[in-house]
Amino acid sequence: MIQNQFQSCIQACYECAQACDTCAAACLQEPDPKMMARCIELDNECAAICRLAAQLMSRSTEHAIQVCQLCADICEACGDECAQHQAQHCQDCAAACRRCAQECRNMSQSAAGAASMSGSQIGSH
């Protein structure tokens, strides 16, 4: 089963989504939530793309590679933003985002390599 091959990436995506949800909720409780607007925005985007990437990998769809590449980019942006804030929830989120970005890059590279060797995308019709 191909999703077993990407289980660590799927897990990292779900963990990142949860960290982003926690961070966004905690940012809203900060003394000046307006100062956290960019962080909250990226947390929400990151959580959404992480869940989508995990779902597509679980279903072995042909678009999982491209979504994981985008997920890595959004995770990196979110991680960079969160790392700028001292709050522990932001630091925890930044770490989860960086792990997920690396897992998604690894997945994309290994899946793309396998697809080019076999002449097909994962889960092609």
From TrEMBL:
It holds the Pfam family Csp. Gene3D superfamilies: 1.20.1270.360. CDD domains: DUF326 (cd08026). Coiled coil: none annotated. It comes from the Bacteria. InterPro entries: Csp_YhjQ, YHJQ-like. This is Four-helix bundle copper-binding protein.
